[in-house]
Amino acid sequence: MILKFNIFLRIGLLSLLALCISALFFPEKASAVKQEEQSMNGAGGASIPAPFSTADFESVGPETALETEPEALSKPKMLLYTSYKVAGGDTISEIAQKFALNTGTIISVNGIKDAKGLQIGQVLSIPNQDGIMYKGKRNDTLKDIAEKYKTDKISIAEIQAVNEIFADRLMENVSLFIPRVKMPDTVLKEISGDLFLWPVRGRASDTYGYRANPFGGGGREFHNGMDISAPTGTPIWAAMAGKVIFVGYNASYGHHVIITHSNNYKTLYAHMSATRVNWGAYVGAGERIGDVGSTGRSTGPHLHFTVYKNGVTVNPRLLLR
């Protein structure tokens, strides 16, 4: 028994001596061992890593320390469509908002000419990105198209990637999706039906199109505008900004004014009791240009309002806000 005790005592003394020698000649190792023991004790046996220091960040470099955006995410997205069935109360703007798209994108992709004419049950194609449709013309090239939309910085490569095409020339009448491009504001307002202001405060009393002859004698005649009844002297305003190209009188329209606008529009204001603008004047939308009257071929005080697009009359009611 005494012999065993002596053996254990000698082993213990030798271990203590070895530890002292190690601390004397290898101080770094001893310190590391001590830190590890402290961390183990402080975390209930679990190792706690040292915090990531600025020096560590600088040593690995920004390329490995911070992940950059994958190259695929910065490339143009391939064009994909989903379908949407129009429900009661839906509007183009609400549908566009639902899919985080511009109103013009929905209108252009679906070839909508009258946004107010949306029908319940109508199925719309919804793209996965904003843009407009472009119908190819004879001898069109992608270079020509990219140049057309140069203000939007559209590249040939982007058009090819989105549409999955490789040729640089389009076939005639082939539709192409041009990403990121917005529909011109005037065209958007035209289709949405809010291009023109109401030119007078009153009641629509006659519509555009064929009607019975209001002066008697039977028969039908084509009415090339809309009539808005209002008391004599009620102010008449320019429905859109433009240039006055006619101020005068004739037997049919009485005192009347014609204004030319952007996008090949013209408006005519007839049967005035007085005109308040001059030839060549530039007027803003809502600026007073005359007063309601009943001059010329008229059945009572009202404004006859005609809209021309490319020299042809169109229904004004579809364009009024």
The gross shape turns out to be elongated
Low-confidence sequence ranges: 1-5, 36-73
Order of helices and strands: HHHHEHHEEHHEHEEEEEEEEEEEE
Helix count?
9
Question: What count of domains describes the coordinates?
Answer: 2
What would CATH call the architecture of the largest domain? Distorted Sandwich
Q: Which range best describes the helical content: under 10%, 10-25%, 25-40%, 40-55%, 55-70% or over 70%?
A: 25-40%
Strand fraction: 25-35%
Distance linking N and C termini: 112 Å
In CATH, the topology of the largest domain is named Glucose Permease (Domain IIA)
CATH class bucket of the largest domain: Mainly Beta
The total count of strands amounts to 16
Query: Structural class, judged by helices and strands?
Result: alpha+beta
Mean pLDDT: 81
Main sheet?
10 strands, antiparallel
- Using the CA coordinates, give the radius of gyration: 40 Å
Looking at CATH, the homologous superfamily of the largest domain is Glucose Permease (Domain IIA)
Notes on the protein architecture:
The chain is of the alpha+beta class and 321 residues long. It folds into two domains: 81-192, Membrane-bound Lytic Murein Transglycosylase D, Chain A; 203-318, Glucose Permease (Domain IIA). 27% of the residues lie in helices and 26% in strands. The chain has nine helices and 16 strands. The protein has helices at residues 2-25, 27-42, 54-60, 62-65, 92-98, 103-109, 142-148, 156-163, 185-192, and strands at residues 81-85, 123-127, 131-135, 175-179, 203-206, 209-212, 220-223, 226-229, 235-237, 242-250, 254-260, 265-275, 282-283, 288-292, 302-309, 312-314. Strands 5, 8, 9, 10, 11, 12, 13, 14, 15 and 16 form a ten-stranded antiparallel beta sheet that branches. The chain has a two-stranded antiparallel ribbon with strand order 1-2. A hairpin with a 4-residue loop joins strand 11 and strand 12. Helix 1 (2-25) crosses helix 2 (27-42) and helix 5 crosses helix 6 (103-109). The model is unreliable at 1-5 and 36-73 (pLDDT under 50).
